[in-house]
Design goal:
Blueprint lengths: L1 H9 L12 H37 L1
Amino acid sequence: MFEDDDALTSKKSAPRVLDDMSVDELETYIDNLKAEIARVEAEIEKKEASKNAADAFFKS
């Protein structure tokens, strides 16, 4: 389990080559990146809420 987590956090994807992309393709790429950022931020919020709930439960 932890080995998989380490592999995911240390794995970096190569930056995309932007030279051959049109303006429309670049704008779509930005939209996709923004959607991915929003998805990751939502997951962070979910995990923080779970941690806070657990912390509150065990403090009682």
